[in-house]
Amino acid sequence: MKEFLKRKNIEISVKRYLIDALGAMAQGLFCSLLIGTIINTIGTQFGIGFLTVPVATVAGVDYTVGGLATAMSGPAMAVAIGYALQAPPLVLFSLITVGFASNALGGAGGPLAVLFVAIISAEIGKAVSKETKIDILVTPLVTIGVGVALSAWWAPALGKAASSVGTLIMWATTKQPFVMGILVSVIVGIALTLPISSAAICAALSLTGLAGGAAVAGCCAQMVGFAVMSFKENKWGGLVSQGIGTSMLQMPNIIKNPRIWISPILCSAITGPLATCIFKMEMNGAAVSSGMGTCGLVGQIGVYTGWVNDIAAGNKAAITATDWIGLILICFILPAVLCPLFNMIAVKLGWVKDGDMKLD
Q1: How far apart are the C-alpha atoms of 44 and 40, rounded to whole Å?
Q2: Which of 24, 51, 167, 256 falls 20 to 30 Å from 195 in CA-CA distance?
Q3: DSSP structural state of residue 11
């Protein structure tokens, strides 16, 4: 069995499934749901006609350019997962159907259903791939058959479970904004820097509202915090790569000296409750944006998109100066000020020294 799994490149490990696959799923979400949302927002806000008018009608449903991208989120996630698992072509292409089925049947928790179903379908598809002379028939039939069957069996329950957890977190945040603001901000921020996908986690849990705002705050504390407090070592390249790229670049340094992580975590514990209690910052755009922070400014675009959606739905009168001040303070100014201050204390205590945050 070990020889068979090795020959089929089936590696049953936490890294393969919860790091590689989850990270790839977030990229699939970014290239479909998130990009579609951004396109729709640009079209609406700037009055770009060809981005706001329907370009296709499928089964009586009109789709804009952004709408088409959003509708493909399930297939995009599944194919991205298959790519991360190094699935052969026939398996990879068959995952398009699997992703569509699991995402549609999973409802609000569709991304979590896609993650589980796509992984199992891909691995089973890899196991049968090129084992028969009629591989072009067997591999797609098995991959799609297993995927659709699991989608019908598991996806509704997985979707409901993920949605329930997300709803519980959001409900708890509205009831206890201070405590939950700290917890959500710190936990999602840590997930952003770890080699897992905070964006995929937020998407799987449909994390929006005040909880989504706290998640954005935590992610920004990590990204902007590391970018600014390591500027001496990494200069402008490090500022850009961490500030609008990812704080995950610091993981090798965190492993060497975990104490460099104290400052961003403390910062997120402050900005999270400020977001929920003082500025009432909600992230009502695409849930995946809650876990993106300042990566490509996606978190901020998500917050803005939520404002626009709330205004259109009649839940918000207008975008106020307080909204903008809160967004700028929470996402940029406070992390850029607090993290270096906390780091100065850590340096004086001898916990951190020059060069500890130097990127390779």
Answers
A1: 6
A2: 167
A3: -
Measured at the CA of 216, the angle between CA 342 and CA 64, to 5 degrees, comes to: 155
Q: Mean pLDDT across the chain, nearest whole number? A: 92
**First-to-last CA distance in the chain?**
40
- Quote the tokens at residue 251: 């993981």
How many whole angstroms separate alpha carbon 160 and alpha carbon 166?
10
Q: What's the pLDDT tens digit per position in 260-306?
A: 999 999 999 999 999 999 999 999 988 888 998 998 888 999 999 89
Residues 233 and 358 sit within 8 Å (Cβ to Cβ): yes
Three-class DSSP labels, 201-216 = HHHHCCCCHHHHHHHH
Q: What is the pTM of this model?
A: 0.79
Strand 61-63 to 56-58 pairing: antiparallel
Q: What is the percentage of the chain residues whose pLDDT exceeds 90?
A: 68
Cα(193)–Cα(208) distance, integer angstroms: 20
- pLDDT tens track for 320-347: 999 999 999 999 999 999 999 999 999 9
Tokens representing residue 198 in the block? 């905070």
Q: What is the DSSP letter of 56?
A: E
For 46-63, how does the pLDDT look when each residue is reduced to its tens digit (9 = 90+)? 888 889 899 999 889 999
Domain ranges (residues) in the chain? 2-159, 176-348
Burial 86-115 (b: 16+ CB within 10 A, else e): ebbebbbbbbbbbbbbbbbbbbbbbbbbbb
Instruction: Find out whether 91 and 143 touch, Cβ atoms under 8 Å.
Output: yes
Cα angle 160, 213, 239 (rounded to 5 degrees) comes to 120
**Cβ(273)–Cβ(182) below 8 Å:** yes
The Cα–Cα gap between 322 and 325 comes to: 5
